[in-house]
C-alpha cells in the first residue's frame, strides 16, 4: 500500500504541468477604441495588436490555449460613447473583461460602472493622477501603460539630482480631452515639495509669449506640454530674450508623438530655423524609453502590415508601435496570466476583484520587454531624457534614462553635466515656496536698504557739516511684480467639471 | 345637413373642456433623495412635499386628476448611489420621470444617462454653471430652483448699480460636494467683465486670516461662501485691521441655511460679540427672496406636521419649507402641465424631449408664488439683499430685491445708499487685473521704515547740532499689487476632476 501511495504521488506530480494548463474558459472581451483615425490609439492601430496577442495566447500547446477570447470591438468617442454602449448592452450578458477606453473622462465613467459590476478593466490610457485612487470607484482598473504621475518621477529624479527647486508648468488645454493638462497635472501632483507654478494656454487663443516669459523669470525650469509649433514659438521668443543662455532649463514632455521631438524638431524651412536650432540647444525632451528585443521586431513588422492592410495611411508613423499598441497587446497577456492563476485557485471568471488582484504587484514579459506592475495596479515606467548634443547639426541623443521599477536615474555617455547646470543663478532660493512673492525677505531688504540709506546720509552730513542747506529727494518706483495668469487655470478648473466630466 | 354639421360642431365645442381633461396615464416617477438627514433636501424633508403635490394633482375633478403617479423613492448618497441604482434597475421598465438628485456630481451622472434614454429629469439642485449647457448630455434637465448663475445676477446688478469693479471670491471647499465652490463659480462665470480673484479655503485647515486679508487689500468687494463660524472669524479679523470702515464691501451668500444669517448671526455669547456686531455692520447677505401667499401657509403647516410625524427633529428649522421642498413640489406641477400639453398634442409619455420642451420658457403658479422658467429650462430667481440696519441692536433687514424674471434691482425703504458707498477709495483700479504680488507693498513698507529711521536720526542730529537747516522731500510712487493664492484653486481644479467627478 505505501508503494501504491508513492506511485500515486509520482503520477500526480507527473500530471501537474498538464493539469495546470488544463483550464478552458470562454472570455467575453469588450474593447473600446475610437473608429476615428486621428487618435494614436484608434481601432485601426491598436486592434491588430490585440488580435496578435489573442493568436499567440491561443496557439496550440500554450499555457493559455484553453482560454477562448470572444473579442467585441466597440467605438469610443472620447466623450460618453463607451459609457452609453456599455450600459445599453449591460442588460444582457455582461463582458468578462473590458479593454480601454483611453480618454480620461470617458474612462472614468466606464471604470466607475465596471468597478460597480466587478468587471476588470485594463487600459493603456486613463493616465491621469485621479485614477491612482483605487479604493472605491476605480477599484477594477489596471493601467498597463505608465501614468502621468509615473512620468513625473523622471522630473523629481532630475530635480533632486541637479538640485533644482522651482518650475513653471506651461501647457495647452483643449478643455475636452485635456491630454496636456493631465500630463502636467501628474508633475504637479508628484512635485508638491517643489515650488511649482502653472500656466495654461487656450487652444483658440494666440500665444502671448510676452506674458509667458514674464512668468518664467522667477523659476529655474520650464516644463512644457504643447503642440510642436507652439513649443517652437516659445523657444524662439525665449531665445530672442536671451533666456536660452543656460540660466533656465526648458523641457517638453512628448510621450506619444515620436515625430514632434528629437532631430529636426526645430526645423520648419523658414527664416527662423537657425535661431530655433540654437534655442533648441536649451530644450530637452522627456519621452518613453524605447526598448528593442528580437520578438518585438516581428511584432512591429506584423503591426505595420496590419495597418497598411487596413488602408490607413494617415500619418508618417502610423504603422509604428506606440505605447498604446504595445500596452493593449500586453493587457491580453496580463489578463490571461491573472485569470489562469485565479481559476487555479478555484475562482470563476466572474470574480473580477480576484482576477484584478492577480494582475497587480507582478512582473511579466511583455512584447517589448519586461512589464512591471506596482502594488496599486499601475505600470512602472521607464523614460528617456533627450538633449541636443550637437548644436551645429541640431541633433538629439538620449542622455539619461529613468527606470521607474527601482527609481534609478542613469546617466549615459552622451550626458554633459554642463548642459544641465543653471548659469548665472543664486544658489539659494527663497525658503518658503508658497509665498511666491518672498514677502519677509523683501521687507527685510527694504529695512536694511532704508537703514543703510539713513546711515549714509548721516555720514555724508557729518563729513560736510558746515552751514549747508540739504535737499533730499527720493523717488521709489514699484518693485517688480510677479504676474500670474492664473485666471485661465481657474476658469478651466471650473469649466472642466461638467464640460467634459 | 348644414344643420346637422353645425350641431356637431357645437357638440364638439361643448365637449372640449371635458376632452382636454380626459387624459389618463400612469407615470412612474423615480425620486432620488438622501436618507441621510443631514441634508436640507433629505428624504424626510422633501418627500412630504412631493406627496402633497401628488395629492393635489390627483384630487377629484382637477385638470390633472387622470395622471396617476407611481412614486418610487430611492436613496441618493451624493456620490454615485443614484447612478448605480438607476442603471441597475434600467434593464426593466425605465421610469417616465426622474426627480433629483440634488448634488452636482451625482446629478451630472444621472442626467447624462437620463438624457441618453430620453427621460425628463427635474431637480431643485444641479445648480452648478456647467449644467447650463443643455445641448448634449444635459438635454433632459429642467432646473426648478434658481441656479448659482441666476444668483450671481444679483451681484452683477449690484456691481453695475454701485459701479464696483473688483471682487475677491472667498469660499471653503470640501472637495466632495463642493457647494460653496459651485456657488461662487456661478459668480465667477457671470462676472467675466469684472476684475475677479478667488481664494479657496480647505475644510481641514485652520483659517489663515492674515493671508486672506492680504488678498483683500486691492479689491473693493469680498464675496464669501463659508460656514457661519468662519464668516465670523474673517469679519472679526477684518474689523481688527479696520477694514470694516466702509472702504470694503463684504457679502456672504447663504441660500439654504436660514439660521446662519440675519439677526443675531454675529452672536456667540463670547467676548467677541460686541466686535462681531460692529464688524457685521459691513456684512451684507444675499439670499433667496421669500414670498408669502395664503396657499403657502397651509402647505407650510402640512410640511411641518409631516416632518414631525416622521420623528425627525434634527435641526431648528427642519420643519420649515426651504428651496428644495418648494422646488420638488413645483416639479410635480410643472411635469403635469407639460405632460398634459404633450399628450393633447398626440405625444406619448415616453417622449421625454417633447415633454421637457413644454416645461421650458413658461410661467406657472407654484406653491409659494409664480415660477418662471427661462428658455433654457432654468428657473429665474428672485433674491434679497439683507444688511444690518440697526448697528446698536445688530438687526438685519431686507434692503433690496433682485427679480430675475425681468432683471430689475429694487431698492426698499430700509435701503441706505451711504452703506453701499465705498469710502476712501481711488475711483480708478489698476488696469491689469492679473498682476499678482505683495512684493512691492512689503518692500515699500520696509523702505519707508528704513527711511523714517534715517530721517529720525537726521532730525536728532539737527536738534543737537542746531546750526543746520535740513529739507527732506520725498515722493513715493508704486503700483498696487495683487497677491493671489491661486495654488489652492489650481490644486483643487486638478484634484476635483476625479476625486468627485
Mean pLDDT of chain A: 83
Q: Per the principal axes of the C-alpha atoms, what is the gross shape of chain A?
A: elongated
Beta-strand portion of chain A reads 15-25%
Largest sheet of chain A: 8 strands, mixed
Spatial ordering of strands, largest sheet of chain A? 7-6-8-9-10-13-14-15
Please state the CA-atom Rg of chain A, rounded to the nearest Å.
Answer: 28 Å
Distance between the ends of chain A: 69 Å
Query: For the largest interface in this structure, which chains are involved and how many residues does each contribute?
Result: A-B, 82 and 82 residues
Please tally the helical runs of chain A, counting DSSP H or I stretches of 4 or more residues: 14
The oligomerization state is: homodimer
Which segments of chain A are poorly predicted (pLDDT under 50) over 5 or more consecutive residues?
11-19, 427-447, 460-501
Total beta strands of chain A = 18
Structural class of chain A: alpha/beta
**How much helicity do the residues of chain A have?**
25-40%
Subcellular location (chains A, B): Membrane
GO molecular function, one term (chains A, B): natriuretic peptide receptor activity
Protein name (chains A, B): Receptor ligand binding region domain-containing protein
Transmembrane segments (chains A, B): 439-464
